[in-house]
Amino acid sequence: DAILMNERLFERVKAVYDTRNSLDLDPDQIRLTEKIYDDFVRSGALLSTGDKSRLMQINEELSALGVDFGRNLLAETNAYQLFVKRDRLKGVPSSVMETAAAEARAAGRGDEFLFTLQKSSMLPLLTYCKDRELREEIYKAYLKRGDNNNENDNKAVIAKMVSLRYQKAKLLGYDSYAHYVTADEMAKTPEAVYELLEGVWTPALEQAKREMERMMPMFEKDCGKDAKFESWDW
Considering only CA atoms, which of 97, 70, 69, 72 is closest in space to residue 84? Predict the structure, then answer.
């Protein structure tokens, strides 16, 4: 911020930008000149002294909140432990069970198997374990990280981040933070992003439905015809 909002430095950048078409620059150099100028403007170089100060404060708060969010997510991931008896691990490969057994021994539970939310532990359980309740438990625990109303909860952190991002966008002259972000990307507008996502969504959903149709006979064999196919069954 101290660099990108430095008035004397920006004056020099702007001087090159304003005369770029008369400096005998090649297209790449002109593009670089425009990009550097835009980076300064998007970082608040044209704001008043008071607004620059406010933007610096917002950026500092957002940086701290980003650290808080990541710390909470990591704490939730590391804290989770799922101890399981052998009879519930039908279908799980022996190599996965050996690792889980070693983890349990290290935790002082030598007669059990320990699974965590680390991908190397969680994904094999979701992939191979025939016990639906176990799959559901670890799947939901992964999705609920930072949303357990404890000291690692991220809901308040997210709310503050959303508010500060909106304030930042308005300070810089954008309707929303989405408009601010996309203006510097290929999409240019949030509407273009949604157009692309909708274009991908429809055929992707049809493909997913076809995949589910192929899996239904296996699912009904394992869980019965009255059971509902859930995310942790996929």
Answer: 97
